[in-house]
Amino acid sequence: MSGDDDWFERAVGEADDDAEGDEERETTEPDVDPSDDDSERPDAEPDTPDPDAFEGFGDESGGSGAAVDPDSGDDDGSPFEEDFASAFQNAPDPEGGFGGGGPGPGGGPGEAGPEADFGGGSGGPGAPDGASAEDFDENEFESAIERIDLGIDGLDDMILGGVPKRSLISVIGSAGTGKTTFGLQFLNRALADGKRGVYVTLEESTDRIYDTAEEKGWSFVEYADEERLAIVHLDPVEMANSLSSIRNDLPDLVKAFGADRLVLDSVSLLEMMYDHPSDRRSEVYQFTRSLKEAGVTTLVTSEASGDNPYSSRYGIIEYLADAVFVLQYVRPSDFQETRLAVEIQKIRDANHSRETKPYEITNEGLSVYRQANIF
């Protein structure tokens, strides 16, 4: 096994020292068969999801969502040597693939755009064969794009029809604005509907993610026991040393697991690994493209620029993403109260509100006050 391949063992071996002695979580058989509901499945997924693709992530029990100690010397507990390798070898080949070169369902790199659905007939780009541009029905165009809800009260109402499925979504905000909560709530929506999800964290420990979800009333431990949730903790230094391997392997693992949604928290740490702007842009582009090729709807969080709350730290991800949500603090002139506000910067192929609306982080997650104004 090469040095780069070690990233899997170290990633799934993450466990806090203060978590030693905790009782092992009991692994239960899945209550929901993901094959019964493929409404949010990409066309290019395997015929049968492999629940063992991410086996070993989570706690110390070694079951679904269980972390494995990389220093234990127990080769049988290595998810990479056993579960990951078998996932690659045994997962059925997808029937199709996603083309394109980068982000954007509208013909940009990363995913086939609307033109791929409608063809390029004599009526012009995006029009059915034999149809003229005047005969093209915009409503038919909109209805052909599958859409999903974010799972955030009030914010879903600001998006007319939902976010296009298999989009790359970016959430930009400064510290304390709720980016991680946004990502967990987005993932919980799919899990609550009986689907599958992957959470990749470069900042928080696996146990911390479980604790945060439990505080909000989200049954992430139960979802992991049902083999519908995989939480992957990657050390930023380890990721920098094995980025090429991770970029190549992660999409295959996501496909084998049958994930419907994926969250990466946060892309800013990935961007910080590169000193040269051209290298940074190229690597972030390649990494996000690999996630889009996995066929899942992906959400990445990003730190806001210190000078501009509407821009990410390096000003890259908002151009690659199909949808951008900005979370920020709003301080009135009298400085009596600081409020949180959300704005939808863009969503490709979807109409959305241009208003800036207040929101709160409650014990049930983010809640946007659609009918309220900032001041």
Automatic annotation (TrEMBL):
> Which key words tag this protein in UniProt?
ATP-binding, Nucleotide-binding
The coiled-coil segments of this chain are none
- What domain of life is recorded for the organism? Archaea
Locate the compositionally biased regions of type Acidic residues: 14-53, 71-84
Chain spans, region Disordered = 1-137
Q: Where is the composition biased (Gly residues)?
A: 96-111, 118-127
> Which organism does this record belong to?
Haloplanus rallus
Report the GO molecular function annotations.
ATP binding
Q: Name one Pfam family in it.
A: ATPase
Protein name per the record = KaiC domain-containing protein
Domain KaiC per the UniProt entry, residue ranges:
146-375
